[in-house]
Amino acid sequence: MNAPHTQRTQADPTETMLSLLDLSGADGAATDEEIFVGQSQRQPHGRVFGGQVLAQSVLAAIRTVDPDRPIHSMHAYFLRAGNADQPITFGVQRLRDGRSFSARRTHAYQDGVPILSMIASFQAPAPGLDHQEEFPERIPDPETLPSTADLLAKVDHPARSMVPDRPYDIRHVQAPLYAAAKGERVAANAAWMKTKGPLPDDEGLHRAALAFGSDFTLLESVLRQHGVSWVTPGMNVGSLDHAMWWHRPVRVDDWLLYVQHSPSASGARGLSMGKIFNRRRELGATVAQEGMIRMPDDVLARQQ
């Protein structure tokens, strides 16, 4: 029998995310960078959640660009594990402001060293060619699927205590990998997601919040291919880099379908790609991430 969990008052998770994305201006401090400061959400393992620092880095860059130029792409490297008990300093360098495009470089610092390095591009809206990949068929509606909180309430899982604080409601299309890897071994994964509460009508905020949510399930397409769950003893997983392209306006407080696949895994690294659609079947964003995935020898032996 699982031990009873102590009840505690939960802060509203959407409001918590909004407070994390409300960066201060560091009282005007600057070098060749414009400086912002953000807080971190505490985690049981003590490390900063990658999606959080991605979203904060995006928002810091957005704060230095004219609002009529939305962010359309970013490429980031996770350099060091961040400490969730310390604030993060964000330094934004203005690389270029052209007629249509702007480029920014954001470094996220703790203890004087960068934990993440990101370059982002912004563009003024312009007419042009328009096409997209098709929305996948035979996808159940999110209302018919159990939430992560519903699933983890039935098992003793390390993530159980974290779920109430997560700003996103995530609902897996396939059997989730929290406690076991069931079902067909395929390099594919899909989940519906949306924030648990409404967000202001701010396109930049929604794009940053989408970066936050894009880090939750992306490497699961690698794990599913090999029949591995998140509680595999001795497994060590960490994000190495993260790229994102925003194609069309999105609202993260309405359901989004996150369709993922892994084209390759080798050398203790796995690559996963993701496409994010809204309920109108519009492709809002494409994501790519490579992660370090170290497996214990006994698990690797069973893969032969």
Automatic annotation (TrEMBL):
**InterPro entries given for it?**
Acyl-CoA_hotdog, Acyl_CoA_thio, HotDog_dom_sf, TesB_ACOT8-like_N, TesB_C
Q: Which domain of life is it from?
A: Bacteria
Q: Which SUPFAM superfamilies match?
A: Thioesterase/thiol ester dehydrase-isomerase (SSF54637)
Q: Where is the Acyl-CoA thioesterase 2 C-terminal domain?
A: 174-292
Q: Which UniProt keywords apply?
A: Hydrolase
Where in the numbering of this chain does the Acyl-CoA thioesterase-like N-terminal HotDog domain appear? 44-123
Give the family from UniProt. Answer: Belongs to the C/M/P thioester hydrolase family.
State the name under which the record lists this protein: Acyl-CoA thioesterase II
Organism for this UniProt entry: Arthrobacter deserti
Its taxonomic path starts at: Bacteria, Bacillati, Actinomycetota, Actinomycetes, Micrococcales
